[in-house]
Amino acid sequence: MHRVGSSGNTASSVRPRKEKRLTYVINHPDDKKHCAGVNCLAILKSHEPDTRDYLFTGSRDGTLKKWELTEDAASCSAVYESHVDWVNDVVVVGNGKFVSCSSDSTIKVWDCSSDGACTRTFRQHSDYVTRLAAERENRNIVASGGLGGEVFIWDIESSLRPISTSDNAPEDACSNPLNGSIQPGSNLRPVSSSSSISLLPPQSHGYVPTSLKGHKESVYALAMNDSGTVLVSGGTEKVIRVWDPRTGSKTMKLRGHSDNIRSLLVDPSGRYCLSGSSDSMIRLWDLGQQRCVHSYAVHTDSVWALASSQTFSHVYSGGRDLSLYLTDLTTRESVLLCTKEHPILQLELHDESIWVASTDSSVQRWTAEGSSPQKAFQSGTSFLAGNLSFSRTRVSLEGSTLLQVPLHKEPSLVIPGTPAIVQHEILNNKRHILTKDTSGSVKLWEVTRGIVIEDYGKVSFDEKKNELFEMVSIPSWFTVDTKFGNLSIHLDTPQCFSAEIYASDLKISEKAEDDKVNLARETLKGLLTHWLAKRKQKIGSRAASIAESPLGKDISSRSLTNSRIEVDGTVDSDSAVYPPFEFSTSTPPSIITEGSHGGPWRKKVTEFEGCEDEKDFPGWCLDCVLNNRLPTRENSKCSFCLQPCEGSPAPSVTLGKLSAPGVLRIHKVASYVLEKVVIDPPINQVDLDAPFSSSLSAREFQQSAVGIKPRQKLKPSVEILCNNEVLPSDMSLATVRAFKWKKPDDLVLNYRVMHGR
After folding, report:
1. Is the pLDDT reported for residue 677 higher than 80?
2. Which 8-state DSSP code applies to residue 442?
């Protein structure tokens, strides 16, 4: 708990502090492929002979990838991993940089020639950042828009200049060692006019972008002309706003669409604009005349992607109807280039071809006649685009002969992806997850190792789930989602520390079989084993250098670490990582979390440097791994009443209401009864109201077993029953309550002593 002051209220209030979550993403073995839909594309053209062009792709799996292109192949040369949510757009800028935006509300700048280094992170937006736009001539000015309604203009060169941080600069404006982020968001001033600009003088601790004010709802589309003199934006307000990026002033507002605007283009001169909308229409606007001059009804559903020819005479369009069209803006002639199995999200022209990104994890290249698009109309399969949005829809429904056969049947090149997980089920043992991907393949994953332990192929998911059913009850210690196309395991304290299992059930030979293993603690140790090793090396090297200095003996051991977290010598620091918790180093998982500074970050567990501390990790996580301290948890004990069976020949002794850990096995309860009733019966056997202990620990139950081994293969002399059903000796109390008792009130167990057995 911590005390929070409230403005306007002199009395202090106490609110529970929300602890930060730690998530680990189980990556696919082939991490050079996307495993979720590809949202965005950008081409880096080479202007030197004998050098390659590159394609950058951003995906819903949270990563960006760089592809080296040849005539008939594309090879992944770099993976960029730092965003903690979907990557929504990417643009190439000057000086060998490219910029990405994400649903994590950040904008990141990257080095095109690096193997994945993020240069800077900006957290100016208040919500998802959905779209970017960049000028082509200067290649240094970038606009960003998002669901918060904000539009910002960024000077990338200025934003990357070295920052001189003064002693009194806010901590959250400084760079994070993990992602190089700065947070200048608190320095924007509110602007009263909807068409004005908020531009602050340079701050000593960071770059502040230009803020364009006007949108009151989400922004889904942005476009800028080549010279950076015209910027257009649109979104859920169904209007197009036109801006001058140099001054930040809004020059006009255009109306015409009846639904959300999802895609925009501006011609190189800044005179004409193309828009695609969820109303299925494409519109051509004359910005000089401030009106729509043509409407094109080509699609039967939302238009999500546009790309124009170099002369802005033809437009390529795709969207929710799975179709890619080419339309002549002058003659209104249209032709269906191809159809896909998934909605089209973005298009990128590249010489004579066009790259197509969709909700599938693969990327396709199709022949497009980019320099001479009129050649596509020579096939004789073209049609005239209508003027009304329902015209093409009506033609489609009536089965008219105008329905086109695609000009191309197959793409000229495919960059394959990995099938995304679309269905999952956490099994009762809370260590295995059954999944099904887009290809129909069903697999069984082990959460505590992050690997596939069984690939069942294309079988029925429900039948396999029923086949794998176990009558066992383990507390839920994690949650899971598949928004990245793979498994993301979320750990929240203190709930994640609620599950314990006997070492014998995990086949850990290094521990006694009755030792209880906390699943979350051991999983965290497995995830951070590389970080712990690196940290130990750094502390050792610093200690050696200090020892060699004349003042070494006067420096306390506390200064040997950057972290304020220290190992508590009074605690049993079990640092060994057991086999059921060993993660692969060839396909390491990625961690998503945040510490006290810098915001959320994402990184593979094998890329830690050992210098990360509480500024980067949640405090509860470090306390668990370094100090072996677990937070206070809710009472996980199971209350139950132990009574003799009616008509049992055993002494009729009621042992009263007891409590024990839910993981306790029935054979332990039987051993307890054996000692209390048979071997050492109470003196006052006839007094059923005699007092008994109301709470017994697992150790007390174990000590009462009088030398009988839990796994001893002897016929039991005591049977434990629930609802007149004899319980298996290896069943836990929690399982009995969940599957046998099935009532909210205290569990009632009956015992029956079997003489002569």
Report:
1. no
2. E
